[in-house]
Amino acid sequence: MPIRVFIVDDRPEMRLLFKLNLEQSTDDIVVCGEADTAEAALEQLESAHADLVITDVSLPRMSGIELVERIRRQYPALQILVASVHRTDHFEESARKAGAHEVISKSELDKVPEMVKNMMARSRPVA
Could you tell me the residue range of the domain that residue 14 belongs to? Predict the structure, then answer.
């Protein structure tokens, strides 16, 4: 079964870049949904049946860090990758403290498919 990824970013072009990068890299990953705000993501996540969420740290109204905290409470098994244009130690520490499993700079988009696969491999129990 493919890894189901949900993308949260307020910029449509960024969501498209993530989607193209993920889906063109392998058949093992599908984008099961996307949202432009944290609130919209929370409304859609239950029906999306995602395995992993990629979220921008900078979102309107509710930040990506707040979204991570909410996801962690509502969907504890969901893997979370936080992305930002600016990668700083403070941002990475905040994201991880909120419950993010990985943090990446948007300038490293080419690394996202492999990171997603690795995150899911670590999260699944060994048979």
Answer: 1-52
